Amino acid sequence: MSLRVGVIGLGFFGSRHARVFAEHPAAELIAVCDRDEARASDLADRLAVHHSPDFQELLARDDIDAISICLPDRQHEEVAIAAAAAGKAILLEKPLAHSAEAAGRIVAAVETHGGRMMVGHILRHDLRYVQVYEAAAPERLGEPIHLRAKRNGTRSTARRLGGGSSILFYMGVHDVDAMQWIARSPVVRVYAQKCEALGTGNEDALYAVVNFENGAIGNLDYSWAWPDGLMNGFRSAFEIVGTRSAAAMDVSDQGLYFVDDAGTQGGDTHLWPEVNGRIGGALADELDHFVKATLAGTPYHQHHREALAAIPVLDALARSAASGAPVDVVR
Amino acid sequence: MSLRVGVIGLGFFGSRHARVFAEHPAAELIAVCDRDEARASDLADRLAVHHSPDFQELLARDDIDAISICLPDRQHEEVAIAAAAAGKAILLEKPLAHSAEAAGRIVAAVETHGGRMMVGHILRHDLRYVQVYEAAAPERLGEPIHLRAKRNGTRSTARRLGGGSSILFYMGVHDVDAMQWIARSPVVRVYAQKCEALGTGNEDALYAVVNFENGAIGNLDYSWAWPDGLMNGFRSAFEIVGTRSAAAMDVSDQGLYFVDDAGTQGGDTHLWPEVNGRIGGALADELDHFVKATLAGTPYHQHHREALAAIPVLDALARSAASGAPVDVVR
Amino acid sequence: MSLRVGVIGLGFFGSRHARVFAEHPAAELIAVCDRDEARASDLADRLAVHHSPDFQELLARDDIDAISICLPDRQHEEVAIAAAAAGKAILLEKPLAHSAEAAGRIVAAVETHGGRMMVGHILRHDLRYVQVYEAAAPERLGEPIHLRAKRNGTRSTARRLGGGSSILFYMGVHDVDAMQWIARSPVVRVYAQKCEALGTGNEDALYAVVNFENGAIGNLDYSWAWPDGLMNGFRSAFEIVGTRSAAAMDVSDQGLYFVDDAGTQGGDTHLWPEVNGRIGGALADELDHFVKATLAGTPYHQHHREALAAIPVLDALARSAASGAPVDVVR
Amino acid sequence: MSLRVGVIGLGFFGSRHARVFAEHPAAELIAVCDRDEARASDLADRLAVHHSPDFQELLARDDIDAISICLPDRQHEEVAIAAAAAGKAILLEKPLAHSAEAAGRIVAAVETHGGRMMVGHILRHDLRYVQVYEAAAPERLGEPIHLRAKRNGTRSTARRLGGGSSILFYMGVHDVDAMQWIARSPVVRVYAQKCEALGTGNEDALYAVVNFENGAIGNLDYSWAWPDGLMNGFRSAFEIVGTRSAAAMDVSDQGLYFVDDAGTQGGDTHLWPEVNGRIGGALADELDHFVKATLAGTPYHQHHREALAAIPVLDALARSAASGAPVDVVR
User: Fold this and answer.
1) Mean pLDDT rounded to a whole number for chain A
2) Any CB–CB contact under 8 A between C245 and chain A?
3) pLDDT tens-digit series, residues A320-329
4) What pLDDT sits at residue D288?
């Protein structure tokens, strides 16, 4: 038995989702959708599947069991609610939504219709974050004392996304989710400052200090202000120190280098590398989990309510950065 | 349709093979075998499969399509030839055999019986080596000039294996295979020196300089003389420089650290890490490939004749280390 | 002509200062002082100099031109003011003092007596920080956008110092000084949170977000909560991203490893390594600068007023961590 | 008292020597010399010293005590012998000479005239190599088992030097000297292979396996075939494993990064970085040692006979690479 899938939104992530589903032995890619019809038909031709510029057409098909939504944040609400109403299993690329209210409405729709939804929190499938999570189990770590998360990218990303996303919802959701997951405790209070000097239409950087319910403190370091020559294109890191032990990871350097006359580049060894002609890494593992758990009817690693818990923190961070005062997280 | 598998030899690799097959959606683990009957029954109980101390029992079963052989090098020949005769598809842990002659006899048996065999060259499934291989395609790299491979481990491994293996056949086969694969050219001449100061019953280290048919030169750096406190337990690296570009990887540091009062340890991010309760990484990818290609009747990424090509190089390296003179590789 | 020096306080830093002065061609170590008379006489014997348990005896000597003060923070004020009154040139280990008020009184004393004083901000002599400073020149960096500084150590240090120091004054002063120096702008507002779970008598960790007068934002990451097995014993990092370019450094790994059966240790390649029998690195460079500039009567790289500028920031950070609210820096 | 110095040859190293001597408190730079008169007069003007295109003029001056020779390898012999005859203390940039015979004649001249000479083996002043040397003391390391040294650079260097130097004499001498120093044992036998595919007028790469008198084995990895985009421009590494412990260093990454739109560059933290307006690092330390030991009449860290011991190894490596056979080192 195969899971029959449609993918909506064929940008960077959507086109990769489509390929991974097409290559998966237990999945069958039925159709792809993008407002840009040429983009949709190109990909559909290559993968020999149907295509449409209208997401409703995919939702109306009986031969589609599951929908992967890879649209810009602000379009999540409409499509996800319609997919829930259509009875499809949903894989929703992070962030759940662009605001706490929209996220709440999506979750309500899923629950009302008795459907199921998995949010694309790829770090939950990244071998490094998962190992840090396991090392942070209370019996190994003791009580958490402090956690730090870094996610930095280049300014051309901020420029490309412009007002369509924000540093918190596009990048920040990863680390807020990871922090609450790894700390085994929710963030209850935040303070953030941002800087907007580059004029990209987005924040350049946002630094925050947060408090967890269990007493630990957290440090968030977000930037997409780095010059575009940054080796590997991004830098992420995570560390947690507890009363008994500590765990840390740093993705600046992945021990893989490609050198030519123009410079030295790194390689992706974990996210979505192509290996032997197909996409591997954490993205493939995430989609594999979605396919198998949906087919088996077993719970996803992360319940959608747990994914939802990141959104009020993003909201509080945005309000703190705007007001210059500490803000309590409202749930 | 599932591939029905038996695993023979339940040491470090065999027990992992068994778990991976048991977890694989397209495989069915039928039985496991080890001379140590307690070890076999323990694992069989946990995985709810049959077990036997006698490999012939597994070969005689009609409900087994494929056999994974994870025995010490010197036992490969007998079991692999019997498995070929029994008409089973074979996954043979590296090295193919402990000598060029034995390897030739195994290959002959497989071909005589019209069977198929895949050798467990895990680097072919390691995202980092595969990317170096792809970066070394002639249109990107130009002509290869020099290649270096390092594989270093700790002395307790050498001590544990004693005379049962050798630095070349246990560790060296990885890099000889990788070098010929990535250089797209066979090694034709070698010179090696070794050192035996620790009295582990094995060589401590072996350094070699080799020549490829295409004119490139190679450098091999093998050791299992490192003190047991080596962070991460091993260090491997590979680099290739060509007329147009170059690629390099280094696995000393994987950007993942676990710290407690006793010290700092690294983590395995690529070989056989446990993620979300199951074994992932290159080993899982290798077995996944074996299952799928065997079921589909498509060729394995690496033909067994290509795996065979590493053995005469190991043989030549051993003879050079013994004689102190350069040795031509005889094929 | 030599600079004749006395060293007061013979702990970790004082004993190293004494050795460096004793080895310096343009300095002459005259006497050392420590309340622990055995410690003072031991070192004095080895270096063939005078010793005393009473710092006033050193200040009273006519054959001493300069005094290096390496005492715990809370004793800086008394001794520095007395040294200024005695007309000695002063090298004062960081931090200037344990409070803004005490720091102000020391500076006033130095200026009243027309003396000179250099504060031991070793990062100003660390090749890596100095190169980041140079890369952050406006014509290279453009306008600063965000700066991050990390200084993390092990819990045994916090335990050893107990209430005698604080994470901000012992460690934090380095990075506050470095941030203001490299950003070419003072910190004007701060927000900090701390955690005290280990019961060492000191804060375990303090995270802060700060604002610079020029609009940049800053992130401070202080901890001495790491387990004592942390490789190298500490981790520090600094990065600055500007409108044109960026610079970063990370001292977690210095590319130097010592391995034995107990584990893998790193090496100090920059702070106070012993090379060819004498202390080198940044500490030696700092003292060399003190000797030469004092003898020549030329300004120190950093004026004492610039060193003083770090203290109100530490003060604001401490008040913010205590109150949980953002605090403006009062100068 | 100052050491009065003249510098002959004002290329990359000579111009730096001149600056370091001009900045040194115990040295006085008197004159500089280069066949390229414009280059000599430019530098002389900036440093306010004499200049000449003729090295004999410098040797004839009574107000010069010491000569630093920074010429291409093939010009070492003539100038060094003349300097020895003129009674000058000599600092001779490595390699001693371009052949074993020339090196022997230089040493003979120095000894005949009762003079003194220090060879510019900068690794003896590199904090990392010195610490590896100290970690390799017999009481810490036990008996050496295997040593590996790597020195890789970019093809533009090979192209620029053309036939004027060779990979062994320009780069290789560093590591041959370091290996014999750190192993506390001479190399007695070598085997080398080289590759010449780029047509730079120089070898692209040379790999070698060597034997030490004490039974250890060595691995040499030389290349200047890397594309010019190699981050930091070079990669060097050294490791030694002994019966008790091991030490390793790697200079690929120095934890210092400069990022702009064109790419990410590293920084020099050890060789000849500029700090606070003057040249620091190992080069400054080396020249400082030359000045102080020459003035004091004390031995140099490395006797010239010890420096000489590297030359026959280079010679043997060149002969082996040419003949394809192992070669015994003749002393």
Assistant:
1) 95
2) yes
3) 999 999 999 9
4) 93
- A331, A154 Cβ separation under 8 angstroms: no
- Residue D36 burial class via C-beta count within 10 angstroms: exposed 0-12, middle 13-18, buried 19 and up: exposed
pTM of the model: 0.95
Measured between beta carbons, the chain A residues lying within 8 angstroms of C223 are 145-146, 241
If one counts every other C-beta atom within 10 angstroms of the C-beta of residue B321, the result is: 23
* C259 and B CB contact within 8 Å: yes
Q: Count helices and strands (H / E) in chain D.
A: 12, 17
Minimum distance, in Å, between the CA of residue D258 and any CA atom of chain A: 9
- From chain C, the residues in CB contact with B152 under 8 A are none
d(CA B264, CA C230): 6
D125/C26 touch (CB, cutoff 8 Å), yes or no = no
> Residue D92 — pLDDT band, cuts 50, 70, 90?
very high
Q: What is the pLDDT of residues D3-62, one digit of tens each?
A: 999 999 999 999 999 999 999 989 999 999 999 999 999 999 999 999 999 999 999 999
CB contact under 8 A, B243 and D211: no
Q: Do B273 and A26 touch (CB under 8 A)?
A: no
> Cα separation of B39 and B35, whole Å?
8
- Res B44: pLDDT: 97
Decide: residue B279, CB within 10 A, 0-12 exposed, 13-18 middle, 19+ buried: middle
What are D104-123's pLDDT values in tens digits? Answer: 999 999 999 999 999 999 99
Cβ of residue C183 closer than 8 Å to a chain A Cβ: no
Kindly identify which residue of chain D lies nearest to residue C251, measuring between CA atoms. Answer: D255
Contact A264 D262 (CB under 8 A): no
Mean pLDDT of chain C: 95
Per the CB < 8 Å rule, is D204 touching B148? no
Which ranges constitute the DSSP H helices of chain C?
12-23, 37-47, 55-60, 76-85, 100-112, 127-135, 138-141, 155-161, 173-183, 281-296, 304-308, 311-323
CA–CA distances in Å: residue C165 to residues B305, C99, C121, C170, C197: 68, 11, 17, 6, 17
Name, in order, each residue with C-beta under 8 angstroms of C127's C-beta and a sequence gap of 6 or more.
C270, C282, D269, D270, D273, D275, D280, D281
Angle at B89 between CA B87 and CA B94, to 5 degrees: 125
Q: Do A226 and C241 touch (CB under 8 A)?
A: yes
Q: Does residue B192 carry a pLDDT above 80?
A: yes
**Residue C322: which pLDDT band, with cuts at 50, 70 and 90?**
very high
Record: contact C264-B228, CB cut-off 8 A? no
Chain C 270-289, CB below 8 Å of chain D: which residues? 270, 273-276, 280-281, 285, 289
